[in-house]
Amino acid sequence: MSRRLVPILAVLAALGAVGAVGASLRAPSPALARVREGRAAPAPDGVQTVSFSVRAGEYTPSLVRVRAGAPLRLRVTLEDGNGCATRLLVPDLGVDLELSPAATAETLVAAPPPGRWLFTCGMKMVKGVLVAE
Ligand SMILES: [Cu+2]
Q: How far is Cα 113 from Cα 41, in angstroms, rounded to an integer?
Protein backbone atom coordinates (compact mmCIF):
# COMPACT_ATOMS: atom_id res chain seq x y z
CA MET A 1 0.00 0.00 0.00
CA SER A 2 1.21 3.47 -0.85
CA ARG A 3 2.74 5.61 1.86
CA ARG A 4 0.38 8.38 0.78
CA LEU A 5 -2.64 6.41 1.90
CA VAL A 6 -1.42 6.39 5.49
CA PRO A 7 -2.94 9.82 6.31
CA ILE A 8 -6.28 8.63 4.91
CA LEU A 9 -6.04 5.48 7.01
CA ALA A 10 -5.25 7.56 10.06
CA VAL A 11 -8.28 9.79 9.50
CA LEU A 12 -10.58 6.85 8.86
CA ALA A 13 -9.23 5.04 11.90
CA ALA A 14 -9.83 8.14 14.00
CA LEU A 15 -13.38 8.51 12.68
CA GLY A 16 -14.00 4.83 13.29
CA ALA A 17 -12.64 5.04 16.80
CA VAL A 18 -15.09 7.83 17.60
CA GLY A 19 -18.03 5.88 16.21
CA ALA A 20 -17.37 2.31 17.22
CA VAL A 21 -14.15 1.50 18.99
CA GLY A 22 -12.78 -1.83 17.91
CA ALA A 23 -15.15 -2.94 15.17
CA SER A 24 -13.80 -0.57 12.55
CA LEU A 25 -10.23 -1.49 13.41
CA ARG A 26 -10.66 -5.24 12.99
CA ALA A 27 -12.12 -5.09 9.49
CA PRO A 28 -10.68 -3.05 6.63
CA SER A 29 -12.82 -0.05 5.75
CA PRO A 30 -15.14 -0.80 2.82
CA ALA A 31 -14.44 2.71 1.52
CA LEU A 32 -10.73 1.98 1.34
CA ALA A 33 -11.25 -1.42 -0.21
CA ARG A 34 -12.87 0.37 -3.12
CA VAL A 35 -9.96 2.74 -3.86
CA ARG A 36 -9.06 2.35 -7.51
CA GLU A 37 -5.79 4.01 -8.41
CA GLY A 38 -5.08 5.71 -11.68
CA ARG A 39 -2.53 8.02 -13.20
CA ALA A 40 -2.81 10.83 -15.74
CA ALA A 41 -1.65 9.74 -19.18
CA PRO A 42 0.05 12.02 -21.69
CA ALA A 43 -2.21 12.89 -24.61
CA PRO A 44 -1.02 13.56 -28.20
CA ASP A 45 -1.31 17.31 -27.60
CA GLY A 46 0.95 17.13 -24.54
CA VAL A 47 -1.83 17.73 -22.02
CA GLN A 48 -1.93 15.10 -19.29
CA THR A 49 -5.32 13.46 -19.32
CA VAL A 50 -7.34 11.54 -16.77
CA SER A 51 -10.36 9.56 -17.93
CA PHE A 52 -12.93 8.75 -15.28
CA SER A 53 -16.04 6.71 -15.41
CA VAL A 54 -18.89 7.13 -12.98
CA ARG A 55 -20.96 4.06 -12.29
CA ALA A 56 -23.04 2.79 -9.40
CA GLY A 57 -22.07 5.77 -7.28
CA GLU A 58 -18.33 5.34 -7.70
CA TYR A 59 -15.52 6.97 -9.64
CA THR A 60 -13.01 4.83 -11.46
CA PRO A 61 -10.28 5.70 -10.80
CA SER A 62 -10.98 7.18 -7.41
CA LEU A 63 -7.39 8.09 -6.57
CA VAL A 64 -5.48 9.69 -9.42
CA ARG A 65 -1.88 10.80 -9.55
CA VAL A 66 -1.16 13.76 -11.79
CA ARG A 67 1.81 16.00 -12.45
CA ALA A 68 1.56 19.27 -10.52
CA GLY A 69 1.91 22.46 -12.52
CA ALA A 70 1.17 20.86 -15.89
CA PRO A 71 -2.08 21.32 -17.83
CA LEU A 72 -4.55 18.62 -16.90
CA ARG A 73 -7.57 17.47 -18.86
CA LEU A 74 -10.35 15.67 -17.03
CA ARG A 75 -12.60 13.48 -19.15
CA VAL A 76 -15.62 12.04 -17.42
CA THR A 77 -18.03 9.45 -18.71
CA LEU A 78 -21.26 8.97 -16.81
CA GLU A 79 -22.10 5.32 -17.33
CA ASP A 80 -25.40 5.32 -15.54
CA GLY A 81 -27.61 8.36 -15.22
CA ASN A 82 -29.55 7.00 -12.27
CA GLY A 83 -27.29 8.14 -9.48
CA CYS A 84 -26.82 11.67 -8.24
CA ALA A 85 -23.36 11.95 -9.78
CA THR A 86 -24.41 14.20 -12.63
CA ARG A 87 -21.92 16.88 -11.60
CA LEU A 88 -18.22 16.58 -10.92
CA LEU A 89 -16.78 19.12 -8.51
CA VAL A 90 -13.15 19.75 -7.69
CA PRO A 91 -13.81 22.75 -5.48
CA ASP A 92 -10.19 23.69 -4.81
CA LEU A 93 -9.36 23.66 -8.52
CA GLY A 94 -12.47 25.54 -9.63
CA VAL A 95 -13.96 22.59 -11.51
CA ASP A 96 -17.74 22.24 -11.77
CA LEU A 97 -18.57 19.94 -14.65
CA GLU A 98 -22.03 18.97 -15.78
CA LEU A 99 -22.22 15.26 -16.72
CA SER A 100 -24.63 13.53 -19.04
CA PRO A 101 -24.87 9.89 -20.10
CA ALA A 102 -25.04 11.09 -23.70
CA ALA A 103 -21.48 12.38 -24.01
CA THR A 104 -18.10 12.43 -22.33
CA ALA A 105 -17.61 15.71 -20.51
CA GLU A 106 -14.25 17.44 -20.53
CA THR A 107 -12.57 20.28 -18.74
CA LEU A 108 -9.07 21.65 -18.47
CA VAL A 109 -7.21 22.61 -15.30
CA ALA A 110 -4.43 24.98 -16.33
CA ALA A 111 -1.88 24.05 -13.66
CA PRO A 112 -2.96 21.96 -10.67
CA PRO A 113 -0.90 23.00 -7.64
CA PRO A 114 0.82 20.27 -5.64
CA GLY A 115 -1.50 18.73 -3.08
CA ARG A 116 -4.39 16.37 -2.56
CA TRP A 117 -7.58 17.65 -4.16
CA LEU A 118 -10.90 16.10 -3.33
CA PHE A 119 -13.39 15.59 -6.13
CA THR A 120 -17.03 14.82 -5.49
CA CYS A 121 -20.46 14.65 -7.01
CA GLY A 122 -22.78 17.62 -6.62
CA MET A 123 -23.99 16.40 -3.23
CA LYS A 124 -20.52 15.39 -2.02
CA MET A 125 -21.56 11.76 -1.60
CA VAL A 126 -19.33 10.23 -4.26
CA LYS A 127 -15.69 11.03 -3.61
CA GLY A 128 -12.24 10.68 -5.03
CA VAL A 129 -8.83 12.31 -4.71
CA LEU A 130 -6.51 13.92 -7.23
CA VAL A 131 -2.94 13.75 -5.99
CA ALA A 132 -0.81 16.37 -7.76
CA GLU A 133 2.91 15.88 -7.19
CU1 LIG B 1 -24.14 12.63 -5.40
A: 18
